[in-house]
């Protein structure tokens, strides 16, 4: 009977076999990493954690709204849930998960070893992560010295005068402000990294005209982040000055303007929708050609449409403000710009359908998600065009029609 040779006997005994990494070593490796893949995975994991939290908050709100005169949660708690859900989903779910995919994929797609600034990449992630933790620490630290306040309850857009000390006692709004500030710092750092990587670290021979569409879209999206996050950050600083140093930027009783806050917020808020949906376009640009077994239809037109969306979307913010009485001139401008952004978006939808047409379509899970995305986003876009009509918007401003449109974009699209 032949004896079996042990596996270890086959190995060269001179080859050192290192000890297995302990849990602390693995944790230390992940906490101190500057590798773009690990940082990308941490972004995605962090976003999924907050998605569970924000989803639970949404469930509580829907239970409250399920039947009339329900008392499942108090009005004060409902306002807190609404504020925390909206803030979490935009700043600590959607942005991190999309930056995570960008971190992971962009260096691989352009032949770079890593992002342009690996340490800045890690710094941006941890600053954003701390912002999310700070937001939820408001449940414990928001009451302040006098036991007033808890989690922020000013809505995710925090309109004045709700953020004034008289209407928001304690430190709940301060935690919200600091969380948004830190999230903005992290977003700008990551956007800077993506721009530098895409422009300066492409492999030899990869001209801009040969760059993958996903990288093009992330490049435009990152340039938009520079423009959109800066006004929001400035508004947070102005709000802190109002609350603690006696300035009156948004205090209407002392010559300030509540509408000024709305402009600052929506200069960020509406282009932010395109910041979030553009990476979804990027994924569709890669998935649809692969599973249609065809090259993308109209590569130059797709790049031009992406750049066009980036430019036009920065001029549409005040279509959220038709109901405040801006005047005929401003209303006309924002009606036209809001409708104009549908042109490059329509080009993209046409090119995706043209790519599918005549191809050998493989209905894999990712392809079915991409096809579902086309119909969901079409619904989102059509309702957006409807809201761009000022008289129509006067009737539906701040209604569930707007909520449905927004969620068709964010949930249905992304």
3D structure, described in words:
There is one protein chain. With 414 residues, this protein is an all-alpha fold. It has a domain at 33-211: Up-down Bundle (Cytochrome C Oxidase, Chain A). It is 69% helix and 0% strand. The protein contains 14 helices and no strands. Helix 5 packs antiparallel against helix 6 (172-200) and helix 6 packs antiparallel against helix 7. The longest helix is centred in the N-terminal third of the chain and has 36 residues, at 75-110. The protein is globular, with a radius of gyration of 24 Å. The mean pLDDT is 92.
Furnish the topology, listing elements before pairings.
Elements: H1 7-10, H2 23-31, H3 36-65, H4 75-110, H5 118-141, H6 172-200, H7 213-244, H8 258-292, H9 299-312, H10 328-340, H11 342-356, H12 365-387, H13 390-396, H14 400-413
Helix pairs in contact: 3-4, 3-5, 4-5, 4-6, 5-6, 6-7, 7-8, 7-9, 8-11, 8-12, 8-14, 9-11, 12-14
Helix count?
14
Q: What is the molecular shape?
A: globular
Task: Give start-end ranges of low-pLDDT stretches.
Answer: none
According to CATH, the fold-level topology of one domain is Cytochrome C Oxidase, Chain A
Order of helices and strands: HHHHHHHHHHHHHH
Q: Level of helix content?
A: 55-70%
Tell me what portion of residues adopts beta-strand conformation.
under 5%
How far apart are the first and last residues' alpha carbons, in Å? 63 Å
List keywords for this structure.
Cytochrome C Oxidase, Chain A; mainly alpha
What's this, in brief?
The chain has helices at residues 7-10, 23-31, 36-65, 75-110, 118-141, 172-200, 213-244, 258-292, 299-312, 328-340, 342-356, 365-387, 390-396, 400-413.
